[in-house]
Amino acid sequence: MVDDLKLQALNVLRRFYGYKSFFPLQFEAIRCVMNGNDAIVLMPTGGGKSLCFQIPALLSEGCAIVVSPLLALMKDQVDALRGMGIPAASVNSSQTDAFNREVIEQMYAGRIKLLYVSPERLLVELAQWSERMKISLFAIDEAHCISQWGHDFRPEYAQLAMLRQQYPNVPIMALTATADRLTRDDIVKQLNMPKAELFLTSFDRPNIALNVVSNVSSNDKMKMIARFVNLHKDESGIIYSLRRADTEKMAARLRSSGYNAAAFHAGLPTCEKERVLTAFLNDDINVVCATVAFGMGINKSNVRWVIHSNMPKNIECYYQEIGRAGRDGMPATALMFYSFGDVVMHKSLAQESGKQAVVNMNKLRRMQQYAESDVCRRRTLLSYFNEYYDHDCGNCDVCLNPPKRFDATLLCQMALSAIVRTNGKEGVTAIIDILRGSGKTDILSKGYDKLRTYGVGRDFSFAAWNAYMLQLLQMGIIDVAYDDYNHLRVTDYGWEILKGIKHVMLSEFSYSSRVSIVKKESAKQEVLPGSIPVADKKLFEWLKETRLAIARAQKVPPYMVFSDKVLDVIASARPTSREEFAALYGIGEKKTEMYWRSFTAVVKAYLAEI
Ligand code: ADP
Ligand code: ZN
Questions:
Q1: Which of 41, 182, 298, 483 has the maximal Cβ count within 10 Å?
Q2: Which of 27, 50, 205 to mutate to test the pocket of ligand 1 (most atoms within 8 A of CB)?
Q3: Considering the entire predicted model, what is its pTM?
């Protein structure tokens, strides 16, 4: 049944945003607060959370107050809304007092429908505001900041619990993209809204292709990354590394090959961090090589890929970081490198952190299981968030390239006996050197060339051995003594294999299957971005140039003029009139008015040329 409220909401959706229908649960959440009830909206990044409070704000009398933790996020949203003709504003410390006062006056006069504010300021000024005007709604964005369990706890958020009590007649909507159970439950508790309705959608991000590459040498890793960046030259992407020094090395290396890359980590001066962030948002820098310090508060919708040059410490972090890609819903790629060294390092870090150690180790284990999964990665990832997918996704490396298994009992026995014969006094590199008969001086000086296992494994490359050792570690056949120089040991299970009581199956290591990810990417390149056929790629590039020129003139990031998705739509629909332009996905009334001339002119020029 289409009721009045739905018609009104759809009307606003079309007029301001240029969309024709709601995403799952958006309208249900809108209806909930329009009926005066509290709502908790749990949707992944890109799920369309903002509309859930923006539309009620537009449909209600008075002004909605939106609590947001970061100045950058606030400004980004306010600019985006104003770009669509929606009367939004914020009061914040980067504006002069006079300007802030003017905003408040405008709000009292009923000329602002959404006011963005930090929790600190809200707590101080709310009582005053509420005397002078009607508050239609409280929206608490990034609501996980209220929970100590979350990844971004902010003490000021905790005080928001008073809203429910002090303003019993104003509905509250809390929103977050946090997927873990513990944090979600805590949000409900902390906000003190027992009657809140929950709107929970799937956390799948089907447009992000998931890829893992394990056990390549750091040299090959660098080559693969450079190759990947080359295939994605004109796109925005992020490369995460664990160490600050690596981010700088990576950026320098990419710059020397002519790419527009910069490093970002917490050790840089604030002005440099701001420079990099702004240049990235404005598409002046394509690649940011960063530690995890980079990302929070990046609303940029056209990040097309995220590379992890090391495995993250847990799945929550990984999910959050890859989630920065493809917010516009267009195809995006996540590529993670995973090595024996990553596991060893994370394990020793996890051990240092005392009583949290057990939790950390368990989370690390789940992360490794994902990295080593030989079933669909999306299924593995979602199962971590208690979501079960009943089919393979077809958009991950395992689906596209299932691993072959083979009987590796003999191979395994070779490795185990090398470990036994060195009395558990060597780490993985020395063991592999022995197996491959490397002839390195420190192997010879210890007399390891006299061992019966010396050189028995020379048929396999170092990388292959590394991959197999990792699998043996995962299967509990060998163990690493983290408190004893990371030396390898044989477990009880390992002894059973050594004695020939048990057999082992391993996934075949093949270099070609790893490189195929980059190859597959190059095939995709011909139809970039996403579904645009090659013929229209040129038009897409022209539209992008026009967007960039407009963005520069207006001093806003290009994605705020139009997302890649909307350019994609324009490139395939090729509108030549105002009406045709106005009818397209993602183009509301204000943007039609402002941009139809520029973009239809480009389309006409293109049509004249082909
Ligand atoms: P979130 O805050 O959950 O990450 P956003 O509110 O930023 O998501 O929405 C993600 C993208 O999807 C934005 O570009 C937004 O304009 C778009 N979007 C939201 N709702 C719809 C809809 N009903 N139809 C089409 N696009 C939508
Ligand atoms: Zn899959």
A1: 41
A2: 50
A3: 0.82
